[in-house]
Amino acid sequence: MKKITFYTLLLAFTTILFSCGSGENTDSNTETETDNTEEVVIEEPKEDPNTFTDTRDKHVYKTVEIDGKTWLAENFAFKTGEGCWAYDNDENNVAKYGYLYNWDAAMEVVPSGWHLPTQKEFESLIKFTGGGENAFNAMIEGGDSGFNGTFSGWYDGSSEPFAGMNDNMTFWSSTEHSQTKYAFYLDAFKYDAKKIGMFSLDKTQGYSVRLIKD
After folding, report:
1. DSSP H helical segments within the chain, as ranges?
2. Among residues 29, 49, 108, which one has the least CA distance to residue 76?
3. How far apart are CA 61 and CA 82, in angstroms?
4. At what angle do helices 119-128 and 132-139 cross, to 10 degrees?
5. Angle, vertex CA 125, rays to CA 119 and CA 131, nearest 5
6. Which CA distances in Å does 48 have to 42, 60, 98?
7. Which of 5, 54, 81, 115 has the fewest other C-beta atoms within 10 Å?
């Protein structure tokens, strides 16, 4: 019988020990890569609650709340193909005074969610702001109502079609007269403030447009 010596056992044990320890432990030595990239969220800018943006041309209008209703606080300035004029045919006037529209164009140019004020809505505005000269002073540019009306004049199709800038403030209503060739409009004359009120005239006239939210 072959004797197993102490040294033989020691050699065998050492061989086994090194064999077991020579393999790489991939699980323990693997470094986990951490993604430190932060997700960047780009928020859409929120519209100022005191403005309205016409999505058709991206024009931003100031608005004002008067007697629980939201009005444009500046003249409408969306350009249409027909029935629409810049005062003196000068586009530089549009930034402050907007366009002048005949009644048909004024009715058609209105964006979704808004409407051309009725005769009664204009009369309610005049009454709420004090009527007569008080209403005039409240509704003109710089007045305390915030309506900020400008004396943008009118267009009448004559040989000298533009008149009234810096003297008259005119706005179409959506209300037709019993004679349907006419419609009602708000008129205020700088030199006779007490006469601010609603009048009717031919729909072919070119007046400014203010809108009221539905």
Report:
1. 6-21, 26-29, 94-97, 103-108, 119-128, 132-139
2. 108
3. 22
4. 100
5. 105
6. 18, 10, 21
7. 81
- Helix (H/G/I), strand (E/B), else coil: 193: helix
Q: Do residues 173 and 183 touch, judged by C-beta distance below 8 A?
A: yes
pTM (predicted TM-score): 0.78
List, in order, residues 6 or more apart from 173 with CB less than 8 Å away: 116, 117, 118, 119, 121, 122, 183, 184, 185, 186, 198
CA dihedral 24, 28, 30, 31 (to 10 degrees): -150
| Residue type at position 90 | D
**CA atoms in the 13 A half-sphere facing the CB of 210:** 30
What are residue 170's DSSP bridge partners? 187
**Cα–Cα dist 209/97, whole Å:** 10
Cβ atoms 188, 139 nearer than 8 A? yes
pLDDT in tens, the chain (214 residues): 444 444 444 444 444 444 444 444 445 444 555 556 666 666 655 668 899 999 999 999 999 999 999 999 999 999 998 999 999 999 999 999 999 999 999 999 999 999 999 999 999 999 999 999 999 999 999 999 999 999 999 999 999 999 999 999 999 999 999 999 999 999 999 999 999 999 999 999 999 999 999 9
Please name the amino acid found at residue 18.
F
